Amino acid sequence: MPQQNSTIPGLAVALRISVMRLARRLRAQRSDTSLSLTQLAALAALDRRGQMTPTELAQHEKVQPPSMTRVIAALEERGLVRRTPHPTDRRQQLVELTTDGRRLLAADRRRREAWLSLRLRELTPQERETLRQASLILDRLSQS
Amino acid sequence: MPQQNSTIPGLAVALRISVMRLARRLRAQRSDTSLSLTQLAALAALDRRGQMTPTELAQHEKVQPPSMTRVIAALEERGLVRRTPHPTDRRQQLVELTTDGRRLLAADRRRREAWLSLRLRELTPQERETLRQASLILDRLSQS
DNA sequence: CTGGGTCATTACTTTTGCTAACGATATCAG
DNA sequence: CTGATATCGTTAGCAAAAGTAATGACCCAG
């Protein structure tokens, strides 16, 4: 350890390395459903936040609207999302998950979580409790 | 919250989301030295593990050798890495960081940690202690 | 000393994102 | 009410980055 863990910069170093490494491991566990990462992310966003317009989805995923057009087209072609007209504005559309989309997303999530659940089972209950609390703190860190 | 946080799968869901989100935030903090993420990752790998051959580096970063050839060429052009002949096998090369490469990497790391340190300062000492312990547990999770 | 395997590279293709421009629709000033 | 302006999604064209196939130099077992 180059820096002491008891200082704030020391904690920042350690936490950054730990979080980035675990994130890499988790990412590597993703099932290759031949969906690109962006496609998967769009699907997940629709699942979490419900139906959205293409532009909203693009902003949420930090992608330009034309790129999202292609993502949506690909997802629609595979029957994972559905477009419906906007109730009051005929320029806009609403994109939402289909049952198939929800199913694929659940399967993918299950596979990624399987690896992590297995690892978590090897910990002591106290260690899991620490992670539970840490998870809440990490969320607050990300939001600020 | 779709799942309870008190079960192991529930913890797996929560932890995965927390870790991935914080990792995205940390990644976004990277200084835009106009190096691609892959280039930066290769540089970091050389820093962590010392000199490597292009093929080793490609395997480590999960890209194909031709892609790594290009990454190395770009880094070499900027004077961040240096190639040296392999001592016993003339087919191979060894790639290592230059002083400039090490310096750029350190600057980038500092910038990312500055953001994190700032956030950590807003926490209570108890919360920081929780994160300290969690960091060690996360490391063990990644290694297994 | 030779034939098969390995390493890095080159050439080409695919994927994925961007900007610019456009048609359809909405909204606002007057 | 109407002409100007803005917004939404899309198309077209381009650039970056990664992948596959093929190649030349080199190593090594027999």
From TrEMBL, chains A, B:
GO terms for molecular function: DNA binding; DNA-binding transcription factor activity. Residues 8-140 form the HTH marR-type domain. InterPro entries: HTH-type_Bedaq_tolerance (IPR052526), HTH_MarR-typ (IPR000835), Tscrpt_reg_MarR-type_CS (IPR023187), WH-like_DNA-bd_sf (IPR036388), WH_DNA-bd_sf (IPR036390). Keywords: DNA-binding, Transcription, Transcription regulation. It holds the Pfam family MarR. The keyword ATP-binding does not apply. It comes from the Bacteria. This is DNA-binding MarR family transcriptional regulator. It comes from Allonocardiopsis opalescens.
